[in-house]
Amino acid sequence: METIKSLQLKIYDLIVIGAGPAGIAAGIYAARKKMSVLLLEKYFEVGGQLIKNSLIDNYPGFPEISGFELSQNLKKHLVKIDVIIQEEQVIKLRNNNNLFEAVTTKNTYKSKSIVIATGMKEKRSGADGEEKFIGRGISYCATCDAPLYRDKIVGVYGSGSEAERTILELLPFAKVVYFITDKKYDTYNLEEVKRNVKSGNIIIRNNTSIKSFEGKENLEKVFIKTGKRIEELKIEGFFINLGYSPVTDFVIGFLKINNKKEIIIDLINRTSIKGIFAAGDCTNYPYKQVVIATAQGAAAALSSYRYLHGL
Ligand SMILES: Cc1cc2nc3c(=O)[nH]c(=O)nc-3n(C[C@H](O)[C@H](O)[C@H](O)COP(=O)(O)OP(=O)(O)OC[C@H]3O[C@@H](n4cnc5c(N)ncnc54)[C@H](O)[C@@H]3O)c2cc1C
User: Fold this and answer.
1) CB distance 41 to ligand 1 below 6 Å
2) CATH topology of domain 130-241
3) Best substitution site from 62, 118, 120, 121 to test ligand 1's pocket, by max atoms within 8 Å of Cβ?
4) Helix crossing, 160-170 with 191-198: angle to 10°?
5) Residue 165, pLDDT score
6) φ, ψ for residue 216 (rounded to 5)?
7) Which end of the chain is more exposed for a tag (fewer CB within 10 A), N or C?
């Protein structure tokens, strides 16, 4: 069993940041190349966005598998080949005499190369109180949390078919769903949405924004704004559905990123700094899928191997 001190004293061949599909694949490929590798993941559970995917039916070899089960399979693979996983969030990268330093909220680790595989996260609404109530009434994943709101009044903020899908996931559980959208929502793509608007199970507020979330321990109400009118809704659950953005804040100003904040990579996953590679959803590769993230993770680890051996 390695101690934190011994982990910090070591100079790894590779540090992988993020244990979603891309980071796990990078860890597996690096270990198979006999590279010393440390995987840093901010959450206790590995798997990244996979954990939130109820069903994956497009990952080759698995015609139908839940995201959670696939993430558990990936974890087993990592454990089998002894990749060390540390539960820590990287907040900064430094380049020090051809060695890289990954600074986490607790420690600093050193390596000769890095693979960044930090994926994407849900966009925030920016309303007051949002951060405070995440996990205490505010959620970004109806698939994960809809069953928690049986017979409760909930809200959904967003637009388009994604928001409609969120509403449909909530309807079997919630008493009433308020659908708040900053657009004018007068076309219902899905029959079931249309029916539930008629019967009053879905209440729509068009051209409306979120002002603030309030409550003591848990979310109790949301204040919304339509034109000049402010309305208070008593609500216990609120689902924000504004899409995703790459998790790259900690490399802004260090690596080249594009206007979507994606890390720019070349064909073999090299970034703008030699020795640093990136893979999966955090990159400018346009397709965000599990099979692509794992393939890129593998490619990034192999590119790191080539870099270390001057190939
Ligand atoms: C609801 C939903 C359904 C989807 N359905 C499908 C589907 O059916 N089929 C399909 O192919 N794809 C699907 N996807 C997309 C797929 O999940 C992603 O393409 C894939 O997970 C990307 O993998 P990744 O490893 O690049 O990033 P992620 O899965 O986002 O993993 C990134 C990891 O990095 C960690 N991390 C982030 N920042 C730090 C940091 N600073 N320090 C340490 N760790 C950090 C995160 O905690 C996370 O574990 C879906 C996505 C969502 C959200």
Assistant:
1) yes
2) FAD/NAD(P)-binding domain (3.50.50)
3) 118
4) 60
5) 87
6) -85, -95
7) N
Q: Which helix (H) or strand (E) holds 218?
A: none
Q: Which of 43, 45, 46, 53 for mutating ligand 1's site (highest number of atoms within 8 Å of CB)?
A: 53
Tokens of 213: 């979330």
> What are the residue ranges spanned by the domains of the chain?
4-122+244-308, 130-241
What's the pLDDT at 276?
98
Using the atom order of ligand 1, give the atom closest to the CA of residue 21.
25
Q: Measured in angstroms, how far is the CA atom of residue 284 from the centroid of ligand 1?
A: 15
Q: How far is the CA of 28 from the centre of ligand 1 (A)?
A: 17
For ligand 1, whether the C-beta of 27 sits within 6 Å is no
Question: Does the beta carbon of 272 sit less than 6 angstroms from any atom of ligand 1?
Answer: no
Q: Residue 189: its pLDDT value, please?
A: 64
Query: Is residue 19 in contact with ligand 1, taking CB distance under 6 Å?
Result: yes
Q: The whole model's pTM is what?
A: 0.86
Pick the CATH number of 4-122+244-308 from 3.50.50.60, 3.30.1490.190, 3.30.360.10, 3.40.50.1400: 3.50.50.60
Distance, CA of 262 to CA of 247 (rounded, Å): 8
Strand order in the sheet with 208-214: 208-214, 221-226, 229-234
Pick from 49, 54, 106 the residue to mutate for probing ligand 1's pocket: most ligand atoms within 8 Å of its CB. 49
Per-10-residue mean pLDDT of the chain, 311 residues long, equals 72 97 97 96 92 85 92 91 92 92 96 98 94 93 89 93 88 95 74 82 93 96 96 96 94 96 98 97 96 97 97 89
